[in-house]
Amino acid sequence: MPSPMLSDKMNRTGKQFSENQRMNRPTAITATYRIVTPMFCAGADQQSAELRLASFKGALRFWWRTLMAGKFGNDIEGLHKAEAELFGSSDRRFGQSKVRMRLRWRSKIPAKSELVTEWPANQPAIGSTYLGYGITESGKKGSPTYKPHRIGLPEGREFEVKCIGNERDLASVLPALKIVGMLGGLGSRSRRAFGSIALEYLDEDSFEFKNADGFRAFINSLVHEPCPILPEFTAFGSHARLYVGPAAESARESHRLLGETYRNFRGLPSPLRGRSKIPMGLPLQGVDSRRRASPLLMHIHPVADQFMPVVLFLPSVFHPEIREGNQFGFFQVVQQWMESLNATEVKLG
């Protein structure tokens, strides 16, 4: 008969083995999303509209990285390794994703006649049109530079993503599945609130909010460990800010008002000119041709029967002009715009 000490050790080993078995057992979770604003998502043919799993995976990986800043700081190599191990990589060291995904329409697939072809309007460059550069028609018809208005998927349709993996890996993906459906979107100009998506269900659990307070509290619960220093990549750091604006009766009206507010600060008739606009994103015509995504991410979210504009500011090491010791001062102009909004700040972390 084994001694009490040996029996205790055997019991602990058995429990640990059972726990490992449970965590490695294949399981699944299904996330249901609604398209909130028209989504301009396509494959090789830019004059088509297609809901693509690759687009969703790309967005999911982006939001997963934003939440990992507190864990990895500026250890970019460690972050990329963890991302590749979870989501897969072309690098043979990592191979395929540990979480398999399947996407399908939950509602009827939009017919050709239901696709969005005239929103936002091509002119004038105000409201949603101001935010829609690259979506609206550009160039002169018949010229080599002419580009027609992009075709979009209509708002209101639902789709679901089924994720299959073991419990440990699904637990790693779960926060990203939530936050992409609270702050994110898919397709062209998603950082400007085109293609916003709203999480409605995780399996049978509802994520529809009856009021703005519930939405704000849930967002706050998702950001546990913001990075204490200015991140070298777009992520939740200690200087991240989130604002939720007043609701409108429709998603398009909420988007229009957000675009008009942004235009009034950044474009005409704003006095903001030249290099002072650099912190809002590059390239900037006649100023800097380099590319750097804007640290401002916009989103439209349904709450009850209305729609709220959401603006997230994720500053990171952005441009060589950021001076040592005054990194956040570089983004002062962005902070000024955020504070000028008639909006409520959501405390993060």
From TrEMBL:
<protein>
    <recommendedName>
        <fullName>CRISPR type III-associated protein domain-containing protein</fullName>
    </recommendedName>
</protein>
<keyword id="KW-0051">Antiviral defense</keyword>
<feature type="domain" description="CRISPR type III-associated protein">
    <location>
        <begin position="33"/>
        <end position="197"/>
    </location>
</feature>
<dbReference type="InterPro" id="IPR005537">
    <property type="entry name" value="RAMP_III_fam"/>
</dbReference>
<dbReference type="InterPro" id="IPR007522">
    <property type="entry name" value="CRISPR-assoc_prot_TM1795"/>
</dbReference>
<dbReference type="Pfam" id="PF03787">
    <property type="entry name" value="RAMPs"/>
</dbReference>
<dbReference type="GO" id="GO:0051607">
    <property type="term" value="P:defense response to virus"/>
</dbReference>
